[in-house]
């Protein structure tokens, strides 16, 4: 089980990360690009779930390198990672924080950061 504060701490440990807000929700940026953000469901999102129960607990969105990576992440751990209609065709996954281990969350946050970090910064991080 992970929390939004766990995600914040993990994101802030990465190089050149800043925390701010986008659409009034906590967002973590590298090079001016948001790579992870708090993503509560809108009324429209909830309506689209129909009779299905939406995931419970805080939700985090994390960028992925591309749509192939997004699908692979969801397939590997569909309990923790998912998508919704609003994210169709967009390279990001949603994370049900109460259902993800801290290790898996950290890996996803690093991958999101790598997807948005400038190439030289990402390369230096990977070489450390």
How much of the sequence lies in strands comes to 15-25%
Q: Walk across the major sheet and give the strand order.
A: 1-2-3-4-6-5
* Count of DSSP H/I helices: 5
Question: Over the alpha carbons, how many angstroms does the gyration radius reach?
Answer: 14 Å
Order of helices and strands: HEEEHEHEEHH
What structural class do you assign from the helix and strand content? alpha+beta
Shape: globular
Major sheet summary line? 6 strands, antiparallel
Span between termini: 28 Å
Helix % is 25-40%
- Number of separate strands: 6
Query: Could you tell me the mean pLDDT?
Result: 94
Regions with little confidence, pLDDT below 50 for 5+ residues: none
């Amino acid at each position: 089980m992970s929390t939004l504060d766990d995600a914040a701490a993990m994101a802030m440990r990465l190089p050149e990360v800043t925390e701010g807000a986008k659409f009034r929700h906590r967002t973590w940026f590298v090079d001016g690009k948001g790579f992870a953000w708090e993503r509560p469901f809108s009324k429209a999102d909830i309506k689209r779930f129909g009779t299905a129960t939406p995931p419970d607990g805080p939700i985090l969105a994390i960028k992925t390198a591309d749509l192939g990576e997004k699908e692979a992440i969801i397939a590997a751990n569909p309990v923790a990672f998912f998508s919704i209609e609003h994210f169709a065709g967009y390279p990001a996954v949603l994370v049900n924080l109460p259902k993800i281990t801290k290790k898996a969350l950290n890996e996803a946050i690093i991958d999101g950061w790598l997807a948005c970090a400038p190439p030289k910064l990402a390369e230096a991080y990977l070489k450390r």
